[in-house]
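User: For my dataset I need records formatted as: sequence, then structure tokens, nothing else. Please produce one.
Assistant:
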Amino acid sequence: MATTALAAPRSPYARQKITRSNFELYSWMFMRVSGVILIALIFAHLFVNLMVGEGVKAIDFGFVAGKWASPFWQIWDLLMLWLAMIHGTNGVRTIINDYAERDGTRLVLKLLLYVAFTIVVVLGTLVIFTFDPCPADAPAELLASFCTA
């Protein structure tokens, strides 16, 4: 059994020379601030989608199309997407740092995490801003009732 020698209790404390950035501090602060903002965004989102109007039974393709016709709701949903993804990615990054023991494992897990983050954010942003409920070349029988053929 290996033992580690401890310094004598009365010996002066020798501070190690460690150069660090404040990244972890800013990351911690971001988690708190983004969490509060996300709570407000999500509860307002749920209130508008579930309580206003006819409730959950009214949520369909037309409801989403009508909502995303407004730049306000596009930005709202985009902000929710980005904040939730950055918040979640930062949380999983912290978990990987805490529990992945080997540097190689940590690198691979973080690489997979960042690739997944990038794919979801890019595709989600594209869907929000390029969504067209009435495409020009679609057959009339496939179009929603509110589209003019």
